[in-house]
Amino acid sequence: MKLTVNNISQRYGSNEVLKDVSFSACSGEVVALLGPNGSGKSTLIKTLCDLMPPKAGKVDIDGRDVACLQPIERAKLIGYVPQNVQYAPFTTVLDTVLVGRRPYVQWSYSMDDLDMASRAMETMDILDLRGRYVNELSGGQRQRVFIARALAQSPQFYLFDEPTSSLDLKHQLRTMRIMHEVVHGQDRGMIVAMHDLNLALRYSDKVLMLKDKGVYAYGRPEDVLTPEAIHDVYGVESFIMESERGLFIVPDEPSDGTCAEG
Amino acid sequence: MSAEGVRGSGLKEAFRLIRGNYIEREGVIGTFNASRRKKVIMVITLSIMLVFVAVVALGVGAVDIPALDTLKVLGHHFFPDWIDAPHQEYYSTIILRSRMPRIILAALTGASLAMAGVVMQGILHNPLVSPFTLGLSSAASFGAAMALVLGPVLLGSAYFGHFELLEESITNKNLLIILMAFIVGMSSVVLVLAIARTHRLSQSVLVLSGVVVNYLFSAGISFMKYISDDSALREVTNWLMGSMWGATWGSVTVLIPIVAVCFILMERCAVDLNTLSGGDDVARNLGVNVRRLRIHCLVISAFVTSACLAFTGVIGFIGLMAPHICKMIIGNDHRYLIPAAALMGSLILLLSDTAARVIMRPVELPVGVIMYLIGGAFFIWLVTRRSGRQLA
């Protein structure tokens, strides 16, 4: 399947956030969405899953306009994990993950739904937590629960907004590796907004860099994530090192002595 | 990561998944079944307790009736050929004409307030929300106060007339109070929705609109009290304290289908309410029309609550207490939480109303007073207990 973004623009009131953004992502690809704070990563993700219909342009999946799909049909195609996820007290991890099956259930859960939830929790290493209340978990554990809910939803495209932001190093790597395997093993697509350039370099198949409301560069990570691009987008000097495990980026101090703000 | 590294860890992961999948799937099904069993047992236990308390409540009051005679009255009423009537003829009159409709009204009102509380807390993501948060109680009270204060002026002698319905005599005054309480109660929700509409019915704007509407109608009540004479003032005060004054077979005949239909409509929203617990964006992504769900649930909650309050006056805290007690026991799965809270609400209001009838008998206390006492104590406990952080 192919998700195509055609010249979309987005704004909050009179403040334009995205302008003429175009790109496409296919099944079997992890696309990392990079850019400084305020560059429109979260807005782009919300626009892709039609939580914020674009002010101009359109998003389609295999030629079908996402805005014209029935909500349930769209839910089977696109799964979304926001940056800040809400949860209700007294809800168990199992019940939370089963919510991901909403597009497939009317009132009661089938064995297939339990099977999907079981696999999702096993994948995210939270099976032992299944009977615990979500409000009793740490931030990182909760984040894994919300990713498991998206896995249980089993969509064609996963849209994640900084999914690793509250995870420890081990679970950042594990989560990205799992997502990489899900995308390639099950032929799903994934677009993930993130800040960690090295995770993007290591686990993504393509990188989309946002700057000045539009696309700065889009392509293979090793082609896009160059010291020049990082300097242009983030205002940070950096250099690329090569090791047995692949390339990694070593940032220097910001060129103007401050962090880039969008 | 090198291709070999990814491949190696991927195979290891796959092997672990295949080896553990069967056992872990069984484990998940076990957890799911245990959780469901707990919820079903809760609903069944509450149902049994409600029936037991109802039978006890039928027997106690200004005149105590032995439990066996209470059962005989009920048995004879439903199976006259099989079960003999009790020796005292008036037992049947007391139970069937006076106490039974009162107990059914208490159960229906408790259930309505509790299930409306669950639904409102679900759609507004706020554990301290109740059916009264959106100004419904103030509005219904204002409607009743208008009927009591302005009714005699506007209707003249017709205000004191009566008519027959379902073999019962209904006064025009009571009918006017019921209609005004219901209509003005519902209007509060319409007003809240109209105000919050400009902000796409966001949770915070809905709650703030409710607070504003609450104050507006409270001002109206104060004005009605200010211009009323002594007898109307006393009646308004009594209405505000809440009691089962409207308990007749006519009222419960009207309320039973309303409560049943609203329960079914709420239960149909249960899976969407579970989804909404993840936030508006997650729910919308999972195919829920959040705006429609919010309007739908608000209108149903307001309808069922207004309908019951019109016959009872203001009865607070049930919409907060019953949902919280049930959530602490069976969790936040609305599919079971709505019926469990409804039964819990019925049970609490029935117990409170029975206590109100018995504590100072033959004088009856307004059940609203008992509820505020119990509710206040409950919330002090809830907020100050060690794991009180779970409230938020």
Query: Which CATH-level-2 architecture of chain B?
Result: Orthogonal Bundle
- How widely separated are the two ends of chain B? 42 Å
The helical percent of chain A reads 25-40%
Quaternary assembly: heterodimer
What are the segments of chain B in which pLDDT stays under 50 over at least 5 consecutive residues? Answer: 1-8
Number of domains of chain A: 1
Tell me what you see in this structure.
The complex is a heterodimer of chains A (262) and B (392). Chain A is α/β, with parallel strands linked by helices and 262 residues long. Chain A has a single domain, classed as Rossmann fold (3-Layer(aba) Sandwich), CATH 3.40.50.300. Chain A is 32% helix and 30% strand. Chain A has helices at residues 41-48, 71-77, 93-98, 111-123, 139-153, 169-185, 197-203, 221-224, 227-234; strands at 2-12, 15-26, 30-34, 56-61, 64-65, 78-81, 157-161, 189-193, 206-211, 214-219, 236-243, 246-254. Chain A has a 6-stranded mixed beta sheet with strand order 6-7-8-3-9-10, with helices on both faces. In chain A, helix 4 packs across helix 5 (139-153). Chain A is globular, with a radius of gyration of 19 Å. The model of chain A has no long low-confidence stretch (mean pLDDT 88). Chain B is an all-alpha fold. Chain B has a single domain (46-391), classed as ABC transporter involved in vitamin B12 uptake, BtuC (Orthogonal Bundle), CATH 1.10.3470. Helix content of chain B is 76%, strand content 2%. Chain B has helices spanning 3-59, 67-78, 89-124, 136-155, 172-196, 203-227, 230-241, 249-268, 270-276, 280-285, 290-312, 318-330, 334-358, 367-384; strands spanning 162-165, 168-171. In chain B, strands 1-2 form a two-stranded antiparallel sheet. Mean pLDDT of chain B is 85; it is low at 1-8. At the A-B interface, helix 2, strand 6, helix 3, helix 4 and helix 5 of A face helix 1, helix 9 and helix 10 of B.
